[in-house]
Amino acid sequence: MLFASAGNGGPLLMAGYALILVDAAAQSLAPAVFRVVLNRIQHDSREFLRTGWQTPALAAVVVATVFLTAAYFAHTWTRRGATRWANNLRQALYEHVQRLSVDFFHRARLGDIAGRINQDIERLESTLVQGMALWWAVALLLISVGLIAWVDLWMLALALALLAVAAGWTLLILPTLHRHTRDIRAELGRTAATLTELLGVHTLLKAFNAEEDALRRVHRGTDGVRDRTESLARLQHRYADTLGFHLAFVAPFVLLFAGAWRAASGTLGLGDIVAVWGFWLQGSGALSTGRTCGRSPSSRSATPWESSSRIPSCSAVPWPTTSGSANPPPPTTRSAPRSKRRTPGSSYAAGSTESTPRSANAAAPSPAGNASASPSPG
Length: 378
Description:
single chain
């Protein structure tokens, strides 16, 4: 049902995801233009000033134009497609919940249902947009690695070793980070559900003087969310700051001095060093962008789809009739007035709530509403 609700938002999402690949390719070619310009200046600066600058300048204009066009339409179409998908899913989920019977609402918590229809679907919408960023990051990283291999294979081996260090650190910490994030999201959903239900019965809480107990429940839930969030923040920054230090400082300096050694030996030019450095910065920036993308709460959002009624809705059960008419309105019951004080030896007062035993010969109403007398034996 999740993918069936894409509707007219699916083609827009696919087009946006395709254009973001063009965006990544155009962005990754910028250091290649730097490489051509610096190498031409290093070999013959006078020739570059006469006619050598024209081709790199034209390439820079083309790359910038393609990048701007692809980026605009990719972001716009992806956002529109995600919005339409989320809107269709929200409507379909609400229609599905409306078809469930009363026992589902008795078993489920109203706050959970409201949170899944509103908050979780909003997170799904943001996840679709973040998915475009993740797709762009993977494409940019692969293109950057390929362009480093185009410049020099020895520098490619060094760059892959530096990426392996970052990947090992990510594989070590990221599963724990995702588990903490999932636990916080679940705890936050439970706290929001509790708060919604307590607000719904606020009148009863005041009537029974249970406000202090409700306040303790809310404080207990919010304190749990606070403690988990602080723990997650410490873990996130231990991971992110260490990874950022490796990608932004250690690896670029290693590549710079290794490239300088290769250039001093006459293997690489100055433009090659700058290009490798630029490719690394773009690829590592894409890696940092990809690791910040959130995970979809589809497991929580899909829960109402898996729910069904254990008993049929009471509106589907026909009321029993005595006159043969179909489904008359349900009978209304009225409380009988209290009987007056009974004196000894007197009969029960009219309208008394007590019942008198009926004899076996008492007349019983027939299905048609008439009284049929039972003949006395003998």
